[in-house]
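ok here's the first one, seq then struct tokens
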Amino acid sequence: MQKGSTVQLVSVRVITNDVTRLVEFYEQVTGLDARRPAEQFAELVGPSCTLAIGSAETMALFSAGADVPESNRTAILEFLVEDVDREHERLMSLAVAPEVVQEPTTMPWGNRSLLFRDPDGNLVNFFTPLTDEARARLAR
């Protein structure tokens, strides 16, 4: 890539031992339908980024042993939502209701945030910008 080129984040991939379970969870949580080009791989395509879900066996195609499924404790998958409190109520009524880590809370940087875990233990944040400054940070 030449200097001055733009790098664009287009996808985040989560590696799992159970693609179907994770796909079903994210379909219910996001309302997106997953594309399944292969049994071991799925994509949930959103307006700004794609969440890819791959089986642990797909990592052998890249570098065997490079992944450790279901062990993430640092990255957070973040989704912009219209109303965090309404989403919290909706999520708690789902058959796949997630483990809530933090109830809806207004953060010092102006976002209202709901933090929960997916079935593999990955952190997920649903957030709504409340202040003009928080909304401005999302403007591209």
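and now the second one, same deal
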Amino acid sequence: MLLAERCESERLRQIIKELQRHRFGRRAETLPEDQMLLGLEDVEQVAAYGETALDISAPEGREVRVRTRRGNRGALPTHLPRIEVVVDIEGKTCPCCQGELHRIGEDRSERLDLVPAQFRILVTRRPKYACRACEDGVMQAPAPARLIEGGLPTEATVAQVLVSKYADHLPLYRQAQIYARQGIELDRSTLADWVGQAAFHLRPLHERLLGKLRRRPKLFADETTMPVLDPGRGRTKTGQLWAYAADDQPWGGADPPGVAYVYAPDRKADRPIAHLAGFKGILQVDGYAGYGKLAERGDVQLAFCWSHMRRNFYELAAPGPAPIAGEALKHIAEFYAIEKDIRGRSAEERCLVRQQKSRPLAEAFEQWLRAKLALISQKGKLADAIRYALSRWEGLTRFIDDGHIELDNNAVERSIRPITLNRKNALFAGSDGGAEHWAIIASLVETCKLSDVDPLAYLTDALTRIVNGHPNSDIDQLLPWAYYRHELKAVA
């Protein structure tokens, strides 16, 4: 009886520690990169402030500091236009002998200048012609196609609104405020109308992107909550934004990376089954049980995420001393050390190294987990963490015999992060339809970023070509990675 009470007391303490960390501690296991950069910005600002004060108070060392600054600043891009300003002497007569000075060279320096974003108005004129002899009719060139018929914006303007909202996380009302400072009064509802019409035209591209990803032999999958306004109840409801990503770069694959988001009003297991209809291969996921139904059909094998498994032990070790959880983290770290060494190698090389090095570690770790599970209370959080790992052991160790599989699901979690940033700023989607638009445009924007394509240039070009009748049979040429290859050919 006393032993049972102690076990229950320990379990409750663990729950309290977990709740305290969830409420007051950091959610991430490591300091987020963006947050770390914010701290470094302040440090660098203080250093620059001190250097400026030193330049003024101790001018004798200024030249040395200037040379150091020049050596660290890098080179300016060659594609930017150069506006030359000549700073010349007033008179070209020698002050000594009054002879004419001749030019022997020059000093040249370059600085980065900025012209603020500026609106302009494109005026389209279509002359009309008639024949004086027959007066049979009036000839005039047809009006160019527009994305917003009868509206104000060009395709580039709409693309800027999309990129600001879905890449730079600026809600439409903030964009309206920014435009108002330049004297352009655009109501938020007007901007929303532009986004909706753009989403309609871009929907076939989203469907094609998802279809192309479904043909890959290996995908990552994850999901995140999407608050959606529910006017009938006067509050928000919780939808789900599912993410399906492909990234073959860790093993040198030729296929370009990409991600497609799909909105669903719930988290039922039927959702990924519908989204991935026709997919055959490896699906790397977290521990959500709903993916199991997808694997039951036989065409899909699940590879589970070591990062999620690790998190269970980390949450036990983070609040204070936890010998077993801490030792589990050391075991897991050995696998990540091997992966770091083989990143970028071919799938065959990765598989060979894993069979030689990771397999013995996996066998030892499994035996260690089973031995520890037999020694501890079965009702505690530690037992739950161990059972989580052992119940998914086949999927967790599938990476050993397949060099295409990653150790974790971080590739798709990185694609989820921009969605969470946008969600913090926008708070919620206005409707299920708005959440679907979010999925459509964010898929194209994030795939651009994965392929090193400028999303503004891409969306401007894609929208322009769509409204000008780009054939649906050639839709693959409008996908972000095709645009990237097209740009490379143009440069060459």
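notes on #2: The first strand starts at residue 128 and ends at 130. The mean pLDDT is 82.
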